[in-house]
Amino acid sequence: MHKIIWTIIAGICIAAPASAQTLKIATLAPEGSFWMVEMRAGAEKIDERTAGRVQFRFYGGGVQGNDSQVRRKMRIGQLHGATFTSGALGAFAPDAELYALPMTFRDMDEVLYVRKHMDGRLRQALEQAGMVNFGIAGAGQGYLMSHQPVASLKDMEGQRTWVQEGDRIAYAAFQALGISPVTMPLTDVLTGLQTELLDSAALSPVGAVVLQLHTKLRYITNLPLSYVYGALVIDERAFGKLSTDDQAVVREVMEGIYRKIDQASIRDNEQALEALVSKGLQLVDPARDQVPLWQARVSESNRKLAAEGVVSSEGLDTLLGHLEEYRSTRLP
To answer: According to CATH, what is the number of the domain 12-328?
Structure first.
């Protein structure tokens, strides 16, 4: 009888995953979104390849709170990681915000060229800050979307525009343009527009579609303001509890997932912009003489931020150097 009992116990021990770890991940991505579907697919593959030793538990739709609340929960171990957008990654590593500097990129070709040279730098900055990451996934160019048409600096004056909490870069740029930035969590933007706390918001077309902002906005200023991107980061303290082999599996699978998300982002953003226009939003071209004025003001703001250490001056110079290199090869 004792032999039978011990045989059963031994069988259970063999069947159970050794040192199983569940990584608890917060994200603003809602259930059913492309990002969430792909991350869950990656988690299933990791579960299978590690024989259940590594599992993910996702908390979607911002249910774990805003960025600062999520970071606090990561510090105390209540969460092990999260997806953060470009406006929040700087809390871990300042230069992780370099691509988000407003009015830096004229088009996606410039973004892709610079990323080819600098993605490794941004990822390394996060790793050195103790944040394991799996690559950068773009969400496309962000545009100013508003109740009233915005085509000049005069139109911008007094605009109450949403800025993500903690995004010092966007806040400073909007102030330089005469806009009155209003900070609030991304999940509160629709309510802010409904209650007229906000007149406008700057975000990617994909973000506007997901948040259903087209129901409260009428115009899109047809000039890219900033590149929007995100990354999944996991605290190295939690990641370090995985075996070396399991760490390699997680990196391989999630890096593949983030490449897939990134590659789909350009097409998705273009389609989302078309969808917004089809739903009645009107594209407004800025006055030709206004664009250089906007760029000059924002460029000065970016330089001040670098001097203050919000991003490094060396990092900004490197980025601008790659842009100059790329632009010199293009026909005028």
So the answer is: 3.40.190.170
- Give one DSSP letter per residue of 114-135, joined into a string: HHHHHHHHHHHHHHHTTEEE--
Q: How far apart are the first and last CA of the chain?
A: 87
Q: Pull the structure tokens for residue 256.
A: 């593949």
With beta carbons less than 8 A apart as the criterion, state whether 283 and 151 touch.
no
pLDDT in tens, 163-207: 988 899 999 999 999 999 999 988 899 999 999 999 999 999 998
Q: Where in 180-236 does DSSP place strands (E)?
A: 180-184, 200-203, 219-221, 226-235
Domain spans, the chain: 12-328
Angle at 259 between CA 253 and CA 261, to 5 degrees: 105
48, two tokens: 């299978």
Q: Which of 183, 158, 160 is nearest to 171 (CA)?
A: 183
- Calpha distance 69→140 (Å, rounded): 26
DSSP 138: E
pLDDT digits (tens, 9 = 90+) for 66-77: 999 999 999 999
Cα gap 85→230, rounded to integer Å: 4
pTM: 0.89
Phi, psi of 172 (to 5 degrees): -65, -40
User: Structure tokens of 282?
Assistant: 């009107």
Of the candidates 116, 68, 114, 123, the one whose C-alpha atom is nearest the C-alpha of residue 93 is 123
In sequence order, which residues have a C-beta less than 8 Å from that of residue 38 and are 6 or more positions away?
Answer: 257, 260, 261
Q: Give the pair of three-digit tokens for residue 242.
A: 């995985």
| Strand extents, DSSP E, 60-126 | 81-85
Q: Give the Cα separation of 222 and 106 in Å (integer).
A: 12
3-state secondary structure of 322: helix
